[in-house]
Amino acid sequence: MSRISTAQIAQRAVETILDRQSSISDLQTTITTGRAMTRISDDPAAASQAERTRSEIATNTVESRMIGFARLRLSQAEGALGDGQEIMQRARDLMIAANNDTYSENDRAKFAAELTGLRNELFSLANRSDGLGSYLFGGYGSRTAPFEDDGVSVTYAADPGAQLVGSDGRFAVSLDGRSLFENVDNLGAVKSVFGAFDDAIAALSDPANATPDLHTAIADQMRIIDGANERFGTARAMAGHQLNAIDRAEQDLQRGELAARERLSDLVDADLAEAISRLAQQQTQLDAAMQTYVKISGRSLFDYIR
At the N or C end, where does the chain have fewer CB atoms within 10 A? Predict the structure, then answer.
């Protein structure tokens, strides 16, 4: 039968004291930081899951920003399309009013001047900026105004298409100006909406135009403008559908982020009430171990601490 010496008991007491002090230090760090894990070695599996969850949250954050940008651009584009429809409707009404046999040459010149103003409004709209250095009708992307006017005709200088964002590339942040303003069908022939305005203005400004010729010219240009107006309406409806889809996507992202943050909290956040309780227990055990050591060693607590 072996005996445990006083020195061995004292050594065990010292080891217990050191162990309790280490545990107390860890618990104090847990309570201070609110984290259950302060080192990867505390729980490697949980640390790995936590890292994947943080990556998921970061991806959701980037996706939310891209979708928010798409919302801004689509809202601007939807408003611009509505403005374009109003301009073309006013132009149509003006053409109907001007296409009247009772008006004089001067009256028609006034109508032509009003149409010129509307045409210039539409051109400015076609080159409307998003306020961030890009253009709403800039197609696949343009850092310069997509439409150019050389005084004879208007041409589309940007790359046709649309910029898309989102992880699945389903949200547009620009519109294809070429498909909206150019190549509008008129009984088998195509023309840009700006060409229709220019020809209507020229017809009203030409004093030599006989009444039947004027009627024909105005009717032809109105068909172009009506066709462009219809395109704008279709594009506006599609923008509205995409804005609704963005609402749903944002809700899905918010739910996903909330779930991910809850998982992360379960993995890394400490139960503070439990940690405080364990700290009190460890402190009690440390006090008991120190008292045991003092009795065995024959020294005072003051000597031990010193």
Answer: N
d(CA 146, CA 140): 10
Residues 62-96: tens digit of each pLDDT: 777 878 888 888 999 999 999 999 999 999 999 99
- pTM for the structure as a whole: 0.68
> Is residue 253 pLDDT above 60, yes or no?
yes
* Residue 27 near residue 278 (C-beta atoms within 8 A): yes
